[in-house]
Amino acid sequence: MLIMNMKKFILGFHVFVLTCFCGFAQERPQILINLARDGQIELVQPVQVESLLIMQIANNRQQTGIPGYRISIFSLSGQAAEQRANETRTSFMRNFPGIEAYLEYNLPNFQIYVGDFRTKNEALREMKRIERVFPRAFIVPSLINISI
What are phi and psi of 117, to 5 degrees? Predict the structure, then answer.
């Protein structure tokens, strides 16, 4: 639900930006005045813009997240790997309750990734804290969940 609302917001924002900056420089103040006055905007746009928006919406629906970073704290294969992965995830969530932990199985390893960081700098800040408890932690590029 939250992701759908975010997608609608992003789509609306793109339409607004495209309207304001795609050759409508003279009408931009009038659009903003009309928006402030009665909350309605009339969009006049080339058919190609609508086609691009439809393609972007289809592309966004295929994505499971946005590009970002997570921190890997565990990776192991073998018979006891799943149990140890669950124990590690539980331990992490107890030590860092504000950061989400994800258990993934990538043949043949069970892996724990933590956090949803939009930039590498955000991940680095948290990794300094996480390394104290999980010294083998490292940052990996990943698709992350959007949080508002």
Answer: -110, 130
79 Cβ contact partners less than 8 Å away, ≥ 6 residues apart: none
CATH code, domain carrying 109: 3.30.70.1070
User: Residues near 20 by Cβ (< 8 Å), separated by ≥ 6?
Assistant: 28, 31
| Predicted TM-score (pTM) of this structure | 0.61
| Residue 5 binned pLDDT confidence (cut-offs 50, 70, 90) | low
pLDDT score of 91: 96
Domain that holds residue 17: 2-62
51 shares its domain with 108: no
Choose one of 44, 62, 80: the last residue of a domain.
62
Task: State how far the Cα of 40 lies from the Cα of 69, in Å rounded to an integer.
Answer: 39
